[in-house]
Design goal:
about 425 residues, alpha+beta, BirA Bifunctional Protein, domain 2, Rossmann fold, 2 domains, eight-stranded mixed β-sheet, 16 strands, binds histidyl-adenosine monophosphate
Length: about 425
C-alpha cells in the first residue's frame, strides 16, 4: 500500500525549524504589547458568507481559492483564507463599539487558500495579523505601517521596500473604474483572458496582471491618485507625510491594488528582495466598508497581515539571527540498568529547578551517551556511575573546558541551578 503523504501545498514544520517560528511569534507578540494590541483567538472555520461578502465575490480568493464544504448540519462553512473578516465579525458580535475606541487586536495561526504552490506560496500558511478598529483618521494607518516595519526591524530584516497607494472609496472609485475601462477598451484585444474577464467585473485588478502584454499596457494607465475625492486625497497625503515624519522609506506605486475587495483609501505592501516571485512579506490597508458588507453598522478599520513562512525564508536568506536551537543544558549519563531510576530522579530535580536536562532511555553505553550529550549541545554532563550512586555524589563535567568535579548531589544541583538555569541564562 502506498504511504500517505501530507497534502500538496502543506508543510510539516519539524523540530529543526519550529524554534525559528517561535522567535517570529515572540517578536510579534512583544511588538504587539509595545503598540497596545491585544491577542484574539478566533475560529479556523467560519460561515462561508462572511468571506464571500467580506472579501468580495469577484476576488480570486472567493472565486477559486476557498476550502468550502457543507458540514453535517447542512451549513456551508469555509476554512479561513485570512483573518480580517473574522476580526471584524468578532468586534461586532461582542459589541466592542461600546468600549473605548479604537480597539487594537492581533491574531496568529493557519490560513487556507487553494493556490498553485510554489516557493513562499502554500495552501496552508500561517499569518500574524494586526487590526485597528474604530479609528477613521490617517494616523491609525501610519501606526499600522510603522508596526509592520518595527517587527521586521526587530527580526533583523533588511532589503525591504514599503509600497504605498490609495484605492479610493465608493465615492471616487467608480470614477476611476470608468477611466480605467476607457483606457483599456482600446487595447482590449491584446489583453490576456483573465484581464478580459476582469474588464467589467473588477478592472482595478487588471493593474496587477503579470502578463507581459498587459503589463506594457498598464504602464500608461491613468493613476488612481488623479481620481481620488477630496477626502481620500487628503487622507493619502496625511499618511504619506506621517510616514515621512517617522523617517520611513516608502515608494508610491499607483499600480498597487490588493487582491481583496474590502480595501478603501490606504493600500500597502512590504516587498522583500529575497523572496523570488512571491515577494510580498506583508500586505494591508484600510477597510472602512467591510463592517457594512458583512451586515452591521459602519466601523472603520486598518490592518495588515504577514506570512510567517515568507518571514522565515527572508530571514534565512539574509542570515538574520533566528534564535537559539533548543538544546539541553545538562545531559545525565549513567552506567548500568539499576542507575536509570537515579538518573531520572536527578533529571527531575534539575528540571524542577529550571535547568533543562535530558537522558538516555535506550540502555546505551556510557561512551555513546557521552557522544549523544555532545551532539545534543549539552553544556554540562552529570555522570552517575556506580561509585557516585553509592556515595550519593554526582560528577559534573563541563563540556566546554573538559574539567570535571565530583560533589554531593545537593551541592551539584545547587551549583547547576546557579550556572545553568533558564532564569540565569536570560539575565
Ligand atoms: P494578503 O495580502 O492576502 O492580505 O496576505 C497577507 C500576507 O500573507 C502576504 O503578504 C503573504 O506574506 C502571506 N500570504 C498570503 N497568501 C499566502 C500563501 N498562499 N502562502 C504563503 N503566504 C501567504 C490579507 O490576508 C489581509 N487579511 C491583510 C490585512 C489585514 N488587511 C487588512 N488587515
Amino acid at each position: 500500500m502506498e504511504a500517505i503523504k501530507a497534502p500538496r501545498g502543506t508543510r510539516d514544520i519539524l523540530g529543526g525549524e519550529s524554534w525559528k517560528w517561535a522567535r517570529v511569534m515572540d517578536v510579534a507578540a512583544s511588538a504587539a504589547d509595545d503598540f497596545g494590541f491585544r491577542e484574539v483567538m478566533l475560529p479556523i472555520f467560519e460561515h462561508t458568507e462572511l468571506f464571500s461578502r467580506g472579501i468580495g465575490d469577484t476576488t480570486d480568493v472567493v472565486e477559486k481559492e476557498m476550502y468550502t464544504f457543507t458540514d453535517r448540519g447542512g451549513r456551508s462553512v469555509t476554512l479561513r483564507p485570512e483573518l480580517t473578516a473574522s476580526v471584524m465579525r468578532a468586534y461586532r458580535e461582542h459589541d466592542m463599539r461600546r468600549g473605548p475606541q479604537p480597539v487594537k487586536l492581533w491574531g496568529r495561526g493557519p490560513m487556507f487558500r487553494y493556490e498553485r504552490p510554489q516557493k513562499g506560496r502554500y495552501r496552508q500558511f500561517a499569518q500574524i495579523d494586526f487590526e485597528t478598529l474604530g479609528a477613521p483618521g490617517p494616523m491609525a494607518d501610519v501606526e499600522i505601517i510603522d508596526l509592520s516595519m518595527e517587527i521586521y526591524r526587530r527580526l533583523g530584516l533588511s532589503n525591504l521596500q514599503v509600497v504605498l497607494n490609495s484605492v479610493g472609496c465608493p465615492k471616487c472609485r467608480p470614477v476611476y473604474r470608468e477611466a480605467l475601462k476607457k483606457y483599456f477598451a482600446s487595447g482590449f484585444d491584446s489583453l490576456c483572458e483573465t484581464c478580459k474577464s476582469r474588464f467589467d467585473r473588477n478592472p482595478l485588478r487588471m493593474l496587477d496582471c503579470k502578463n507581459d502584454e498587459c503589463r506594457k499596457l498598464t504602464e500608461n494607465a491613468p493613476a488612481v491618485t488623479d481620481s481620488l475625492c477630496g477626502e481620500c486625497g487628503a487622507h493619502f497625503r496625511a499618511v504619506t507625510r506621517g510616514l515621512e515624519n517617522l523617517g520611513a522609506d516608502i515608494r508610491l506605486d499607483n499600480r498597487l491594488v490588493r487582491g481583496l475587495d474590502y480595501y478603501t483609501k490606504t493600500a500597502y505592501e512590504i516587498l522583500s528582495g529575497d523572496l523570488g516571485a512571491q515577494n510580498a512579506v506583508c500586505g494591508g490597508g484600510r477597510y472602512d466598508n467591510l463592517a457594512e458588507s458583512i451586515g452591521g453598522p459602519s466601523v472603520p478599520g486598518v490592518g495588515f497581515a504577514s506570512g510567517i513562512e515568507r518571514i522565515v525564508i527572508t530571514m534565512e536568506a539574509q542570515g538574520a539571527y533566528m534564535g537559539r536551537e533548543p538544546a539541553p543544558r545538562v545531559y545525565v549519563v549513567t552506567s548500568g540498568q539499576g542507575a536509570e531510576n537515579e538518573a531520572l530522579s536527578l533529571a527531575h530535580d534539575l528540571r524542577s529547578r529550571g535547568v533543562s536536562a535530558d537522558l538516555d532511555f535506550m540502555g546505551r553505553s556510557m561512551k555513546s551517551q557521552m557522544k549523544i550529550a555532545s551532539q545534543a549541545g549539552a553544556k554540562f554532563v552529570c555522570i552517575l556511575g556506580e561509585d557516585e550512586i553509592s556515595s550519593g555524589t554526582v560528577a559534573v563535567k563541563n563540556m566546554s573546558d573538559g574539567t570535571q568535579e565530583t560533589s554531593p548531589r545537593a551541592a551539584a544541583l545547587e551549583k547547576l541551578e546557579r550556572i545553568a538555569s533558564r532564569k540565569e541564562e536570560s539575565k
